[in-house]
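Deviation from plan, reported transparently: adenosine monophosphate complex.
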Amino acid sequence: MDILKTKADMQAWSAAKKKQGKTISFVPTMGYLHKGHVSLLEIGKPLSDELVLSIFVNPTQFGPNEDLDAYPSNIQNDLDLAQQAGVTAVFLPDKNEMYGPDYQTHVSLDHLPQYLCGRSRPVHFGGVATVVTKLFNIVMPDVAIFGKKDFQQLAVIRQMVEDLDFNIRIIGGEIIREKDGLAMSSRNAYLTPEQRASAVCLSQAIRLLKQKVAQGIRSVPDLIREAEAFILSFDHTRVDYIELCDPKTLEPVETVQAETLVAMAVQVGKSRLIDNALIELA
Ligand code: AMP
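Because the crystal trials were delayed, the predicted structure below was used instead.
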């Protein structure tokens, strides 16, 4: 497994592989890998000759009062997991390598970032779109795999790839969960045991919403009220948002549609946790 720390080395590595006729799968991450990340590597592995993982905690996708400085890291463990998953190269740049002092170009989208997480994280998706554009130009993959856990991020990347004509196939990987339903996340590491117990509220609220829809409830305001009361019945919780929306445009809906995305962000202690699921009417 090669470890590349500069953009020039990564580009040269990918260019050499391409010259040999090899294809490249790519999984971008911020590190502190868990089984969710590994599942994306497992999707990418059989799709191409080479499998590239990037680990970069991208400062431009964090707002001023977010957890950039506290973001967990364990590079050695990440490299061990990458090796086990058959990664052939890890791109591990530092901040100065990615953004020089004269950096001034940003990728932004008009609509998708206005919904869901974009409301409370106004700079987030511009930061994501910009860094993923850079990573695509550096790694030059044929296929890139992103988790549905970050559903809005996946929508933003798909839109950006279409709009900017990247010749890269985008694949969405299913959400990997703990046994009790909590979606795996690097940010779960911040939870105290008490908060960890409360963190199941997100997946349980989704289950509750699915049950209510199955019982015939279609009014979104009624459904959101139920889910909010349920989540607030757990200690240490504060609801950032609970929304039901169109899975393509992310626009909120007033009544449950044939295909509706339920998405939520809940602050549990210091961790802002997200979860989502598609509700499909039979
Ligand atoms: P992150 O390191 O949090 O930026 O995540 C890197 C990639 O892993 C993103 O595409 C995430 O959507 C994905 N990911 C994170 N958690 C999970 C999970 N529990 N299941 C599946 N994919 C995930």
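Residues 2-173 form a domain with the Rossmann fold fold (CATH 3.40.50.620). We consider this an acceptable substitute for the interim report.
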